[in-house]
Fold FUSC family protein.
Amino acid sequence: MEENKSFKDKLSLGWRARKSAVSVSLIIIVYSVFNLGHATLAALSAVFAIRENMTDTYKYAKYRIFGNTIGVLIATTLIFLRRNFPILNNDIYTSVSGGLGVLLVLNFCTLFGIKQSIINSTATFLVVYLGTPEDTWLVYSISRILDTVFGTGVAIAVNRVLPNRKQDS
């Protein structure tokens, strides 16, 4: 089947790819016009959420939002402890709590029955825990959740407006 396709057919893009591209472009435009900073996590959220149909898009948008929220909450809790208890403000705590945070993310995703969120939740945890500016850690963390909500919202809107593959025939 796949091996019988011509080179040109293998390069053609389906509606899901087109919708992802439109979503990313819209997100970058909005972030640029309103000076919202980096659009990376919002754009990634849109790409991860776009699916072949609206039911799956809603489902994966939910996984993305819930998973990112888990990652952010665990990261901000560990950052809060490090910032407010001077004895924890060291490399040993950061190393041990980084590993512990990953375990917590895995366990919470499993507990809530959203194993599909494990990878993005863990990635969000690491981005926030290891990449948060010390002076703006809380705003940065909240912004990561809002980025995800915005990105998945754009994905849902674009997926609703643009045609689905079944409508092509």
